[in-house]
Amino acid sequence: MSKSSVINHKEKRINAISKKANVMMLCILSVFALLCVLPVLLVVVVSFSSEQSIFQNGYSFFPTQLSLNAYRFFLRLGDQIIRSYGITIFVTIVGTLFSLAVTTMLSYVLSRPDYRYGKILTFLLLFTMLFNGGLVPSYMVNTQLLGLRDSVWALIFPMSLNAFYVIVLRTFFKSIPMEIIEAAHIDGAGEFKTFLRVVLPLSKPGIATIGLFTVIAYWNDWFLGMLYIFETKKYPIQTLLQSMQNSLEALTQSSANALEYAEMAKNAPTDSGRMALTVLVVLPVMLAYPFFQKYFVKGLTIGGVKG
């Protein structure tokens, strides 16, 4: 047997083994993907199930009786749901834009090798990732010093700066060649113009990745609403969901016709109602994610290589 035929035989064996490994890996990843999708599917199915079928058979992917009572109930409570949705949408949009503005500017400054205090600020950022002042001091600062109690801004400012996001974007900005920035300076652009016209357009994947993280963080946050908001009509949708899991009192308090809503609360769907509200909360994020997926994957890949 000639040397070339031996090499070809080995290459065929390697290719066959590689194909088998790819098939096995694909099967394993498919199983993991299915395990991630099944809980979401169960939530959707239960939200369309009747309370009686849930009581008799428990949670099931194959309900014996379908019902829209949970969604009808929330339509009758439309004022509170719509108000909470509006607050959450406002907080998510404004909070994400403000957080990205602060995070990108700070990250760009820290990524510049000629910035004198870069190491000191980076150390302070890393220090806050390990230690913080605690819940009580932050509550006193936000309520007594800044006056954010029962204010929508209390849902935005405490989450506007994340040290981890700054470190990730700083690493991403470092991947931009300094020659491009120096060329912009030679053309007469100042620091701020260089940042807006040169750095930001080249950093769309990284900014989109951090933006997606920030959107999800603001959209899913319920703790700040529970901590700083005391009027039910100012609840964001996640805090409303948390209140729903405990009782329906938070919904009845916002109604002018308390007797009517109290009667509704007696017949309110409990398990299917929670699932229906979960679907209403998760659905916008699920619909928006495909538009960010391309930048999200690319941003994570570049950050991983450079980090």
Automatic annotation (TrEMBL):
Where the record annotates domain ABC transmembrane type-1, the positions are 85-292
Classification via Gene3D superfamilies: MetI-like
Q: Where in the cell is it found?
A: Cell membrane
Q: Which GO terms describe its biological process?
A: transmembrane transport
**Looking at the UniProt record for this protein, which Gene Ontology cellular component terms does it annotate, in alphabetical order?**
plasma membrane
Which membrane topology term applies here?
Answer: Multi-pass membrane protein
Look up keyword Transmembrane and say if it applies: yes
| A Pfam family recorded for this sequence | BPD_transp_1
| Keywords associated with the record | Cell membrane, Membrane, Transmembrane, Transmembrane helix, Transport
InterPro entries documented for this protein? MetI-like, MetI-like_sf
Report the transmembrane regions from the record: 21-48, 85-108, 120-140, 152-173, 194-219, 275-292
Principal place of residence: membrane
Is Transmembrane tagged as a keyword?
Answer: yes
Concerning its family, UniProt says: Belongs to the binding-protein-dependent transport system permease family.
Any idea what this protein is called? Answer: Carbohydrate ABC transporter permease
Q: In which organism is this protein found?
A: Eisenbergiella massiliensis
